[in-house]
Amino acid sequence: MFILKRQDVEIAGIQHPKTGQQIPILKYEGQNFRLIQVFNAAQAEEAKAFWRDLTDNRGKACVLLEEPDRYSVWGKVRLEQIGEDSGSSSSSSSSGATSPLFTQACLLLLQAVYFDIEDLLGTRQAGTFVKEMTQIFQKWNFPQAESTGAVKQLIDMDPLTESVPNWQEHHITTLLQELYQIGKQYFGNTSFAEGAVEVLQDMPAGERKQFIDWMNKNPLGKMWGVV
Predict the structure, then answer these.
(1) Distance CA 23, CA 15 (A)
(2) Spatial separation of the C-alpha atoms in residues 66 and 9, rounded to whole Å
(3) pLDDT average, residue stretch 99-124
(4) Can you tell me the distance from the alpha carbon of 215 to that of 186, in angstroms, rounded to the nearest whole number?
(5) If DSSP codes are grouped into helix, strand and coil, which group holds residue 58?
(6) pLDDT tens digits for range 78-87
(7) SS3 breakdown of the chain: % helix, strand, coil, rounded to 5?
């Protein structure tokens, strides 16, 4: 359909009627769109190819939102569809719920980056990192991550034994992309990712393989070096 700029649209959160989860909704010319996929600024071509595939090859009604630091693809949705098992977005496999193991893996990576920053750069930088991650969680309406205190709890918890938030696939994708970009800013290179992914060894082998296989289906695998 369209390539839009941030000033062209309104983005708001609505509450999922069953889970209570906040879902980002893009509004444009009286139409509503639900987030499908997020790409970082360096993935402009991947974002446009993904958008074109959905619109040209699959006949989906989608928009591509272009921002200075990211691209995002949104699928047309009727608000009354939210909460239905089928058709809740133009690509249910890209925006639906994921297994808790995906959230567990993401939290392990978040913790690994945090502790590397704390060990190598000091507690002040680690505190700034928490504040930056909180802003990201707030912007994209991550459940149970609405404050710096909540984010610190996520960093301090054991995701393999404790209950983790109910995050959807677009949350997982956004977190992995943003965490990678922030890690590059703090360490000045991408070598931190190789060390961070070693923490995934703490997961059961089958669950670790499932998560890595999913990452390798999109640019995240190459980004984090798990290909």
Answers:
(1) 6
(2) 11
(3) 94
(4) 23
(5) coil
(6) 876 665 533 3
(7) 55, 20, 30
User: Angle at CA 133, nearest 5°, toward 129 and 139?
Assistant: 150
Q: pLDDT tens across 135-171, in order?
A: 999 888 888 898 999 999 999 999 999 999 888 888 8
pLDDT at 88: 36
Rounded CA-CA distance 205/227 in Å is 16
pTM flag (> 0.70)? no
Is the confidence at residue 98, as pLDDT, over 90? Answer: no
Torsion of CA 212, 58, 68, 106, to 10 degrees: -20
Q: Which two tokens stand for residue 65?
A: 């939102």
d(CA 216, CA 227): 6
Distance CA 12, CA 29 (A): 14
CB 170 within 8 A of CB 141: no
> In 3-state terms, what secondary structure has residue 30?
coil
Is residue 19's pLDDT more than 60?
no
Q: CA 14 to CA 91: how far, in whole Å?
A: 18
The answer to whether 116 touches 192, Cβ cutoff 8 Å, is yes
